[in-house]
Amino acid sequence: MKAAAQSELYRLLPSVDEILRFEDVAKRIGADGRSAVTAAARDVLTNLRAEIANGSLDEQRLRFAIDGIGDAIERQLRKELTPSLRPVINAAGVILHTNLGRAPLSRAALEHSREVSVGYSNLEFDLEAGERGKRDIHVNRLFSRLLSSVDREVSTVVVNNNAAAVMLALNSLAEGGEVIVSRGELVEIGGSFRIPDVMSKSQASLCEVGTTNRTRIVDYEKAINERTRLLLRVHRSNFQIVGFTESPSLEELVALGKARGIPVMEDLGSGALFDLREVGIAQEPTIADSLRAGVDIVTYSGDKLLGGPQAGMLSGRKDLVAKIRSNPMFRALRVDKLIYGALEATLLSYVREDYDAIPALRFMRTPLEAIRKRADALARELTKQSSRLAVTVTEARTAIGGGSAPGATIPTFVLAVTFDGFSAHQLADALRRAETPIIVRVEDERVMLDLRTVFPEQDAQLLAALVNLAQQ
């Protein structure tokens, strides 16, 4: 398009002020605010100018676009003002899916958070004494009860995640000194965060002992010197080392610590209050297991095996926890009333032994036959409603996920779906773009929908999404 013709088109464009006086646009100002509507108008005008510049608009099309500028602004507003954080259906077969928010919260956790957040609460107010209190008490009392089998007094404080808990503990207990850890435990967690990096930020020095696959108790003993402040065990929560391996038992490490007067800290990572042996997973220690073995400080997550909100807990010797709590860094890392509300409600479910109230545990505990019945019912209905869908029910395994119980899986049944005219990846993409996005996995050119990680009340949405695609 010639420059002169383009200039004529640019002159047809209304100004932002003119657009804001359009009747349908002016109404949007009352609903969405002048600032948001003005920004949307500018965005629409920018898009129109770009289309003029690349020659895709002539005068007739431009006048048509200007007539519909109110609708374009409405679409832009919805795009900008609609939350990008959305609920999804997890049919991928990973219970603690890090990318999907890890542990779903229980209804009790959500309700209690709402109760203590819509108004005021006694977060840091002692109602009996009528004076300032500490926010720790709301969950410390419950952790003490749940860890009572340890047979010694245990205290717990809460920060915003487990990486923060590790850094706070190292800074509080080993700043300026050395922390001894096996080379086979220098793990990298999600987002490229590595234990040596966390330790460096804590102002403690790393002393590596042993080799990647073999570390003995004598390696720790030889490394102890006047600067040693902690013996650290890092649980391999997101990987396994197999084959020619060796590592000292926790009891050996504790005995060495006691003999040399050095505290032992264990970063459990996931941190289970529920014994996973009940669902066939034997290699994942509980928090109580570590404390019973004599570990002085244990750090662990709230939104993994515990099944609560994102948080990092430090449980252990009362004097060491008090020292950690007195660290000025604790205030920077502490959590708010929403987290305390959700965490308190989650722990109360443990106290009541109502494990199925916690979604992550309920998914693990759901009987295999119950999953098969749901899968069979959905397969029958899908086959009945569309001849384009080929659906079979097949056995599979659900991963625990979230850097928990590496390699551990639970038996499940999945819907294996193929769709005439779509490849498996095309079908997976289409489901991900559904009104409520559905996240699946693809295996052997089939879409796999694992019902162990799908709430039963979401089965109807799965059915509707697949049928809608088949009818397009």
Describe the 3D structure:
This protein has helices at about 5-10, 15-20, 25-30, 35-55, 60-65, 70-80, 105-115, 135-145, 160-175, 195-200, 215-225, 250-260, 285-290, 320-325, 330-335, 335-350, 360-365, 370-385, 425-430, 460-470; strands at about 90, 125, 130, 155-160, 180, 190, 195, 205-210, 230-235, 265-270, 295-300, 310-315, 390-400, 410-420, 440, 440-445, 445-450. It has about 475 residues and is α/β, with parallel strands linked by helices. The protein has three domains: about 5-80, no CATH class; about 90-95 and about 365-470, Alpha-Beta Complex (Aspartate Aminotransferase, domain 1); about 105-355, Aspartate Aminotransferase, domain 2 (3-Layer(aba) Sandwich). The strands form five sheets. The protein has a seven-stranded mixed sheet with strand order 4-12-11-10-9-5-8, sandwiched between helices. α4 (about 35-55) packs across α6 and α18 runs parallel beside α20. It starts with a helix and ends with a helix. This is L-seryl-tRNA(Sec) selenium transferase. One of its GO terms (biological process) is conversion of seryl-tRNAsec to selenocys-tRNAsec. Keywords: Cytoplasm, Protein biosynthesis, Pyridoxal phosphate, Selenium, Transferase.
SSE order and pairing:
Elements lengths: L2 H10 L3 H5 L2 H10 L1 H20 L5 H9 L1 H13 L7 E2 L16 H9 L9 E2 L4 E2 L4 H10 L7 E6 L2 H13 L3 E5 L5 E2 L3 E2 H7 L3 E5 L7 H7 L4 E7 L15 H11 L3 E6 L17 H6 L4 E5 L10 E6 H8 L2 H6 L3 H15 L7 H7 L2 H18 L3 E11 L9 E11 L4 H9 L5 E2 L1 E3 L2 E5 L8 H12 L2
Parallel strand pairs: 1-15, 5-8, 5-9, 9-10, 10-11
Antiparallel strand pairs: 2-3, 4-12, 6-7, 11-12, 13-14, 14-17, 16-17
Helix pairs in contact: 3-4, 3-6, 4-6, 7-16, 8-16, 18-20
Pathway: Aminoacyl-tRNA biosynthesis; selenocysteinyl-tRNA(Sec) biosynthesis; selenocysteinyl-tRNA(Sec) from L-seryl-tRNA(Sec) (bacterial route): step 1/1
GO molecular function: L-seryl-tRNA(Sec) selenium transferase activity
Function: Converts seryl-tRNA(Sec) to selenocysteinyl-tRNA(Sec) required for selenoprotein biosynthesis.
